[in-house]
Amino acid sequence: MKSIIQVENLRKSYGQHEAIKGISFSVEQGTLFAFLGANGAGKSTTIEILCTLLKKSSGTININSYMLDSSHDNAEIRKSIGVVFQQSLLDEHLTVYENIIHRGKMYNLSKQELIDNYQFVSSYLNLNDIEKQKYGTLSGGQKRRADIAKALIHRPTLLFLDEPTTGLDPQTRQFVWQTIKQLQEETNMTVFLTTHYMEEAAMADKVIVLKQGEIVAEGTPDALKTQYAYDQLALVFYDFTEGANWLQENNINYTEKQNIFTIRVQSTLHALALLKQIEPLIASFEVIKGTMDDVFIHIMEQEV
Ligand SMILES: Nc1ncnc2c1ncn2[C@@H]1O[C@H](COP(=O)(O)OP(=O)(O)OP(=O)(O)O)[C@@H](O)[C@H]1O
């Protein structure tokens, strides 16, 4: 698979403070890439540099075969990317349609391209019900739909989304998320996303975790879960004391809360082996799969 973003030894300082400390990574074309990190880790700084809005201190960045900061290449990079920031840049007094068409004209699209592209974004983002409404009068979720439509009007090959679903109600979050996934899968667009929602990161093809300006973990959600999260087996015994004794006699570590015994297991198969042995004693059980939340918490607890 071809890399659409290649970052080598990127550094960025604000005065004395080094916010990005020499990070390197690549993003494959057509994939969904999630960039995670606690507040202040350097996610926005990195995105702003990649989007040509902020100057890097050093390092090399190649986007869509263009070299960032070399003569004419930043203009080419801007043409091939769409960006949705946490703060919207649309005009409150214009309608959604006017805002998006205005944006399209900035890319010098022909009249026919504007019509075709507007239809394309409208079909993905259901703009019909809001296109005649002034942007300033929209709800938070409707604004987000318009923001994403604006970022897509020139049909970019790479879409940057900085926390696209923060502050949205669950239903709108789901809509925005499904739309992003659909666009990525149906149009082979690459999506570069920052998010605080771990269940969203779990759907990415690749995840990078940033901590204090350094990459501290990188891989597919499954690989990260295998490395940093673990499955648990929750058990309820017919007889509390008998169950506790069995676990102690078999040297199995557990925690107990409200009569539920929780045991850390290496895998679902390990849980099954244990269940076969203990079956006569248990009233009920549940295998709890490791999540991306566990991954994030585990990584954040580690020293850099
Ligand atoms: N303009 C600036 N001047 C000085 N320091 C800055 C500036 N912008 C960001 N920083 C600092 O750089 C570090 C990285 O900030 P950045 O906004 O990139 O983090 P982030 O991971 O996007 O955080 P969040 O999740 O809160 O948006 C922080 O310590 C921040 O205080």
UniProtKB/TrEMBL annotation:
SUPFAM superfamilies: P-loop containing nucleoside triphosphate hydrolases. Keywords: ATP-binding, Nucleotide-binding, Transport. It comes from the Bacteria. Residues 5-237 form the ABC transporter domain. PROSITE patterns: ABC_TRANSPORTER_1 (PS00211), ABC_TRANSPORTER_2 (PS50893). The keyword Nucleus does not apply. InterPro entries: AAA+_ATPase, ABC_transporter-like_ATP-bd, ABC_transporter-like_CS, ABC_transporter_ATP-binding, P-loop_NTPase. Belongs to the ABC transporter superfamily. PANTHER family: ABC TRANSPORTER ATP-BINDING PROTEIN, ABC TRANSPORTER ATP-BINDING PROTEIN NATA. This is ABC transporter ATP-binding protein.
